Structures are given as structure tokens and as C-alpha cells.
Hints:
Structural class: mainly beta
Number of helices: 1
Strand order of the largest sheet: 2-9-4-5-6
Number of strands: 9
Radius of gyration: 14 Å
Distance between the termini: 33 Å
Amino acid sequence: PSSSPTTRPTVATLTSCPVDELTPSEIPSGPVMLARSSSLCVLTKALPEFDGSLTDIAPVALSYDGGGWEKAAGDFATVLLYGEEFADYAEGSHITLPDLKGNEKYYLT
């Protein structure tokens, strides 16, 4: 702990997009450091079903061509991430993901 905490807590783990594009990686809410992606990588909100499939999928943010992360277009991402901005660093982008309702989870695809 610091005597003067910041709004951007240190995140030691860099989270990368899955190598297998067909298998989404679940990530937690809260502070995360997302690695830049050379191909299109999308952070989504989804509802996992009992059979492992995902429903109610909505894009939240994306990275591509080695660029920093940016909010996805549309009202869903704008409202969900209201007041949050990506902070760009050499290795990736930091953001604090808000908690989701019910059984919804974040995924990188």
C-alpha cells in the first residue's frame, strides 16, 4: 500500500489475447493490463451457458495492428465504461473493468 494511492493501481500481470481464436479467455473485472494485439482482439461481455457456449455477447473494447486498446463503438461500451479510460503503456493498456451484473463475464476473443 502507498501513502498516496492512485486511481491506476499497479497490475503486474499482462493479459494477452488467446492464441486459439476459437477459445475465448475469461478475465476478471477490476484493474487489468491488456497486451497490445497484432491481430484483431476483442474484449467482450457475455453470459456463459451450462454447455459452455456464450450468449448475450457485446463488444467492450478492441486492439489491433499492435495499437493500444480502445473502447468499442456503440452505446453499450460507452455506458459500461463511463468514467474509465485506457492508460497506454509500452507493453499494453490499463483499465479498471466495472463489475458486471448476474452471471455475465468478460472474455478476450
